[in-house]
Amino acid sequence: MTMKLAFIGTGQISGAHLNGLAKLNEHLGTERPYELAALADPRADAAEGLAAAAEKKLGRRPAIYSDYRTMLEAESLDAAALLVPHNLHWSIARDCLDAGLHLQVQKPIAITIADGRRIIDYARDKKRAMVVSEPSVLGRNTRAFFAAMRSEALVGPPTMLLDYAVTTLGGGFFMGTPWRHLKGMAGAGWFLDHGVHRTHWFLEALGSVEDAFGLAKTFEPVRRDDKHGEFSVDNEDCAMTVLRFASGVLGHFLVASAGRGAGFGGVRVYGAQGVADLSGGTAQRDGEAARPLGELTAPFRDESIPGDAMAHSFLELHQLASGGAQPISSGERALEALAIIYACLEASMTGRTTPIADILSGAAHLYEDSIEAARPQWTDAEPIHVS
Ligand SMILES: NC(=O)c1ccc[n+]([C@@H]2O[C@H](COP(=O)([O-])OP(=O)(O)OC[C@H]3O[C@@H](n4cnc5c(N)ncnc54)[C@H](O)[C@@H]3O)[C@@H](O)[C@H]2O)c1
Known about the structure:
- Helix content is 38%, strand content 25%.
- The protein is α/β, with parallel strands linked by helices.
- It starts with a strand and ends with a helix.
- Bound molecules: nicotinamide-adenine-dinucleotide.
- The site of nicotinamide-adenine-dinucleotide (NAD) has 27 residues, from loops.
């Protein structure tokens, strides 16, 4: 069945999603799982640009709306991809579910655990399919890596995770978007934005996390660029954390957007017999030379999975909506990934190690209270000022 799809939000990530649709068409051959029928964004130039790109890539120009609610009334749609700032995920998801649509929600699933839970529960109540687009766990090669890790073929049983990412913004905004630095629109900062990609990956590679400790800080409370001017920002630009996995693995996880001069990064998983260096793309066992991960994981590749992660996400939505396989990147898994981030930030406020279960249940919510307090200011913000 060809599903009529809309994109709500046509900002920076929308091009990768458009590309994902084209790649899915290539992967499936003649079958067309989606028709991109409409786009909605109050920024007319952004919507026009994506419509032109869609016409080139998919052979059809989608209709454009400045208000997604008008689009929901005017178009006969089957599904929507939500590509908007985090504070809007739940309210727009609710309107789409009320209109009977299936949903692909961007990572993070929502700005708070409570909002994420609302999306999951409402989709279930409305009997609509809902997936989270999390490219860090999707795509053929990534799935092959996880299968190889689980078979213990790469490094044996895992023992330690080291994951570091420091980016340099020169006092400006990540991806040129001030909203990412505002608690009331984004939740936490780059630690959340980049961090949920990583925590979702941790869950797939190493299993669930029991508890977390973290220290977080805002080193640069005022940021500026030529397009947007100066903003006082209120979410953290540095988080240094430790994680304890249920399996006994220990993790050291650092994310910072306050780097100056030069960035820094690396991901390694140590095991009882070796180490996988994800940044270097190799694995090495005791007494052996390092070998390319591509070569080691090749026997685990499943050709039925699209190579492109965004294409895989759209395939997951289509399969779920058609009554098929449960998604890898489900709402529940995305919520768990978000809870790890908020457990670290909760610990930074309380000074105590925080169980992930307490964030998921709502028993620990100090950090999320600070998001709720910051939200009202941005509820009706003009997107043009912050995108
Ligand atoms: N999967 C990934 O790897 C990935 C990468 C980047 C961003 N994202 C996620 O995608 C989402 C969007 O990120 P982005 O980088 O494209 O941000 P962006 O700021 O570039 O784009 C957001 C767009 O939403 C539009 N918008 C705001 N309010 C709207 C409304 N009420 N109705 C319709 N459109 C509205 C804005 O005008 C803007 O064009 C976020 O959730 C982000 O975390 C995912």
